[in-house]
Design goal:
Helix 3 packs antiparallel against helix 4 and helix 6 runs antiparallel to helix 7. This protein is mostly helical. The chain has ten helices and two strands, in the order ββαααααααααα. The chain is globular and about 65 Å long. It has a two-stranded parallel sheet with strand order 1-2.
């Protein structure tokens, strides 16, 4: 009687069910027409707006840090002086305000133009995102400017003019950014996407630089030519140019060196600030008209 042969059952390999994108196991056999799932099926989709989802909290943090470092630098400069008084803080305060003006009119748009545009949903759009940026930039500056009436001993009208300037210039820059982003979105309304146009963004940054630095450049050229660039008998031209830029207005109304403000704020400076407010309002109207012509936002 022969021994019974053992009955071995061959294990059957697992089959990949249709529609399964999980990675195959060690005992899985692919059918002839199947292929292993690629990396795109295994990895989550890339979020192109991930760096904008924390806004404006992330931008608020870095802008506040920038202001704190600027104020700390001015206080550190004052500690090097042998005389601690309101007049001795004047030069440091002027340099501090110029640095803040550079951040509010140049660094901020430079950062935003190097990023993807704001997210557009059914609840928030381009105008609201840029308007929130204006508030984030302008509001903390007011807490720095108004104490100058006590710390630096500047008159209230001088401090008020500076405070108004640091509201109007961010408003104008924010309106220019909103108009650009709205124009980009309008260009992609047929595809429903928001394209990024590098040439338009470069032109926008050049425009902002020209708006903020044209007056100082003209005054420097006039000084190099012995003020021959400014017509004789028109001293108001130099006064108007000094108010046409945040970098020159600070020195025009707060004085030079250890001396305080030379006189009350000239009426022409107030007129220039009024014209700046009108320009900002008109730019916001243009941005709103461009945004209304863009594609319908999706609630996501």
């Amino acid at each position: 009687m022969s021994d019974a042969e053992p009955n071995f059952v061959q294990p059957q390999p697992d089959r990949v069910p249709e529609g399964d994108v999980s990675p195959p196991g060690p005992g899985t056999v692919l059918d002839a027409g199947d292929s292993a799932p690629g990396p795109s099926a295994l990895s989550p989709p890339v979020d192109r707006l991930a760096h904008r989802r924390a806004e404006p909290r992330l931008f608020t943090f870095f802008w506040t840090l920038y202001l704190l470092l600027t104020v700390a630098g001015s206080i550190l400069w004052m500690t090097r002086s042998s005389v601690l008084s309101a007049s001795s803080y004047g030069p440091a305060a002027r340099v501090m305000l110029v640095v803040i003006a550079a951040g509010a009119t140049l660094l901020w748009p430079m950062v935003r133009l190097s990023q993807l545009p704001p997210r557009v949903t059914a609840r928030a759009g381009i105008l609201s995102a840029c308007f929130v940026d204006v508030i984030v930039v302008a509001a903390p500056i007011q807490t720095i400017i108004w104490p100058m009436a006590i710390v630096a001993g500047w008159p209230v009208d001088v401090v008020g003019a500076l405070a108004l300037m640091f509201v109007l210039w961010p408003a104008l820059v924010g309106a220019v950014l909103a108009a650009l982003f709205a124009a980009e979105r309008r260009a992609g309304r047929d595809s429903g996407d928001h394209p990024v146009i590098p040439a338009a963004r470069s032109a926008c940054m050049v425009l902002i630089v020209c708006l903020t630095t044209a007056a100082p450049v003209v005054l420097l050229i006039a000084a190099a030519l012995g003020n021959t660039a400014i017509p004789t008998g028109r001293p108001w031209a130099a006064t108007w140019l000094a108010a046409a830029s945040p970098f020159t207005l600070v020195h025009a109304i707060t004085g030079v060196g250890l001396s305080g403000p030379p006189a009350p704020v000239p009426l022409l400076h107030w007129y220039t600030l009024g014209g700046l407010s009108l320009a900002a309002a008109l730019t916001w109207v243009v941005a709103a008209s461009l945004a209304s012509a863009g594609p319908r936002p999706a609630d996501r």
